Structure prediction request, 328 residues.
Amino acid sequence: MTSPARPRPGVPAGHPAGGAAVLAELLPYRRTLDFGHGDTDMNMNVDVDVDTPEAFPAQLRQLAAPVAAGAPLVFTLPGFPCKSPHPAKVLGHLPDEGERLALRFLDALCARVEAVHPPGARVVICSDGHVFSDLIHVPDRDIDAYADALRALIHDEGLTRLDVFDLRQVYGRRLSHDAKRALVQDRYAPALEDLRSLTRSDEPTRRLYQGITRFLAEDSVSFTGTRSAWQRDCRRRAYGVMQRSRAWGELIGEYHPGAFRLSIHPQPRGSAKFGIRLLDAPDAWMTPWHSCVLEHRDGRRELMHRADAERLGRLVFHQGRPSHFVAG
Prediction:
């Protein structure tokens, strides 16, 4: 699948290769919640007012050194952790058509960047399932299986511009997953009170907290306590996810200095991170690992929860595993 074709903003004919040209290839796929004033309404796939590269000075600064040096670009993308544990959202615990299409999109995006920056580009997928598994209630064995299948999928699809990086590259295989998480938390995570204060004072952080809390609430399929206890548990875990997300970002920056930071979360203009939309979805927060794919009659592919896709289509298998739905 490719995202809807759109004009490439800010790149007139004959524009020289440079950071602005590279950024122009990313802008049509920017993930944001801030509609109007040059942002994209992701629910309607309509550009309210097309962005230009000059509106993103932080990203242009990130690109300046490698572009000037004629070096290959490295994009880091935290994500692809594991499948949601909620059976009404996904088809199982292994990658399926959603991941396949998202990976193809990222590889194709690197090819587009290479057209304006001949040294090329790579995306390092920073698979973060083990960072959060105790907080999102997914067994570490399922996360290992997901990450291994993700690497196999990249190999089998011939996606040569993609790599996968996870805690196994950082701490090896001898330490327990709990020990690895503790090392990340202790060394890199911000103080909880600082994060709580930022959630109250910073709108993007507040939105992120609300989005993560919603996901955790939706995926809490086995909670047996009272509703108030369930809500407190989701809020507590949301702060934990945010702490470790920041810790994982710091670790990634240490291991991949100078890389351009992509994010699967919506990001406002001015953020150091650039939100990237992998596939069409009715929700700016939806990802392939929280949903499955429905192929419409016109060939368009869209992410949605399994329960919704089941009502609209029939299940398709690929290599013996559930893959996606096709509209009837």
User: Anything to note?
Assistant: The longest helix spans residues 227-255. The chain has a mean pLDDT of 88. The radius of gyration is 19 Å.
